[in-house]
Amino acid sequence: VIAIEKQNDSSVNILIDLSVSDKFKRVRARCLLGVFSETGDKLKSWEGEKEADTDGFFFVKQWTVPQPDKPFTFKFGLHVSAVLGMDNIWKFNFYDELFNAESNSKMIVFKEKDNQKVLFYTFKRLIMFHSSRLPISSKNVTVPASVSINMLEKCLQIAHGVQVRCSVKDVTKIRFIAKSLGLKNVTMYCERHRIESLNQVEVTDKMFQSTFIRDRRHLLVHLLKTLKSNKELKKVLETMDIQKMKSESMKRCTHFFFHNC
């Protein structure tokens, strides 16, 4: 609900009622205001960013009307750029487009493959900075039906620098999406998350094999720390084709052998 509160004959307050959600504590929004004469001429305009708690009013601006004795029209634009959840984590709002988003070269739009329904609007410059796969001319990314929308959003939040809370199972799905988009920073985030959660999962031969073949050197260092002897490493190596190992993985294993002689 947008409200205009008259202060005096030439001044008004512009407010938005935010008490409509119990999912967020606070919002950050970009606002655009314009005052136009009855003939359509722009009398005044303002653009800025504001924050407010969601349990009251979002105070946009106190506004002095240029010609208070004549009819005028307000034009108003609002885009919620970020929200603070109940978990105290700020997240970007990818669900709503910026003003003229699809025609704006600054945005990349994610759409469903089957019906071209828009899923997310993201910032092109940041996505392109981290992506090694998306061409510079990209405006739209088609999302296959097999991709979880929830996991895709988490992937994009991480790409924009948000420290998303996710389970070990989520990390595997997010990493798959990140690799398909070439998002190096998300891939590194997932690897770091897996390292931090090693004490919560059972370290298996399959986990070692995947790490050897994909050259995930940072994860391998921590996996090797779970082994107690050269005999245990030998047992792991016997389960795989050594020729498929990356050179960096071989170096790490060699170092482990000599260190534990």
Automatic annotation (TrEMBL):
This is BTB domain-containing protein. It comes from Caenorhabditis latens.
